[in-house]
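User: Earlier you gave me the apo prediction for this protein. Now I'd like the version with fe (ii) ion bound, so I can compare the two side by side. Same sequence as before, with the ligand SMILES added.
Assistant: Got it. Here's the input I'm using:
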Amino acid sequence: MKIDIGIDKSQREAIAGGLSRVLADSYTLYLKTHNFHWNVTGPMFQTLHLMFETQYNELALAVDLVAERIRALGVVAPGTYKQFVQLSAIKEEDGVPEAHDMIRRLVEGHETVARTAREVFKAADAASDQPTCDLLTQRMQVHEKTAWMLRSLLE
Ligand SMILES: [Fe+2]
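And here is the structure of the complex with fe (ii) ion:
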């Protein structure tokens, strides 16, 4: 059946394309955070191991909401590592960074998702796509708050 929600096809496709970038950023950050949960060492081990767990669990739930919004707009959601590497603005890690560098990389990751979400918001807003605007607003809120919390560990 045709989709008739008051947003034309080209706008739905443009928004879904933007959301695919948010999804790829979020999935890459999810894996990076889980990786750091596994491999962190040092005197902050307990704090960081648990903090990273809270963060990757939140990201695991978030990627589902983003992907399902893409589907609701009538577009196929990317779901392979190959696509995520192409779409994501967040780079994967080589090797295991030292604990403070893990924190820095995660701050950068959360800031990157916030920037991508903020950019995509404009297209959603222009098309009166309030559900996507709402989702992106919530994601920006989480990523900016998490970036602040991580940044605070470095001061
Ligand atoms: Fe674990």
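For your comparison, keep in mind: The chain has a mean pLDDT of 98.
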